[in-house]
Amino acid sequence: xxxFSIQWxxxxxxxDRARAVQHALVILQASKTATxxxxxxxxxxxxxxxxxxxxxxxxxxxDLENLDAHExxxxxxxxxxxxxxxxITTVAECATCLRWAFLAGSAPPKSCPWTIDCKGTVTKIGPxxxxxxxxS
Length: 136
Known about the structure:
Layout: E1 3-9, H1 16-31, H2 36-45, H3 47-57, H4 61-69, H5 71-74, E2 89-94, E3 100-104, E4 122-125, E5 129-135
Antiparallel strand pairs: 1-5, 2-3, 2-4
Helix pairs in contact: 2-3
């Protein structure tokens, strides 16, 4: 069965939410789906493709549980697939207070807009370094 295998290379100092977002973005890319809901539909309705995705993701249980814990966050992500027009959505997170928001297309604010007197920097959470390997 053709498919893929992901070689993960996430940073160690990420928040749990940022780890979930980075994992989700790569899984969406590898599965060629635009949203977590679309991925869930594929997993429900296409057993062969679902098996290929499960084999390719190869995450330890701890990371799968983290994805589950942040399901509402990853369900808000959107990536572009093919020529289908869409707004690309990811997450921005404050490094100090860990407050976050969805971010569509633009650069994140330079300092935290979510917590009064927080001077933390805000980071746009994008895909991590990773390698998608084709399997035949």
